[in-house]
Automatic annotation (TrEMBL):
Keywords: Lipid transport, Signal, Transport. Gene3D superfamilies: Ganglioside GM2 activator. SMART domains: ML. This is Phosphatidylglycerol/phosphatidylinositol transfer protein.
Amino acid sequence: MMKNLILLIIVSLYTIMFANGSLITDLGQVFMPINRKIPGGSPISTCDVQNDQILTMKYLHISPNPPERGANLTITASGILEEDVEEGAYVELEVHLGLIKLLSLTLDLCELLEDNKLSVSCPLEAARYKIEKVVEIPKQVPPGVYTVQARAYTEDGDEIVCLSGKTSFPPVVRRWKSIIRQIFTFQWW
């Protein structure tokens, strides 16, 4: 069951990031949380490691890495949930494109589990979990550097996990042949 919680958090990071660095506060200053790399080579790290968290990420791998427009992204993750998670748990999510905050949301974790049909529902039991999920990255992702941070909390406000990730999508470069064809087919008169 926890595998689906891990999946939800990771998929939420990538889905919102791709559907629609530094973290910037409302004052415009760079916010540098203490992060820890998660084994597996992905661009996602555990953040706020100075805080007690009840989900310990053991492995996280994405393929392709870095993610590509119009491609399927395979996410493989494992972790250990040390305590049960009850109704009322929530996720605070922020997405930035460069210095621009695209969105800041607070989402009900249990509703997310149900809405995304992850075959798990609250309450979540303490256990070790491993998941694999494939998500599609839209071709229309605008170019830029995307930074995403998701913090999940229990109904009592205890931190479940904090994950942050950063990736970039380069500008789409049209092929020279297409550009030359457009130049020479232009009507000059």
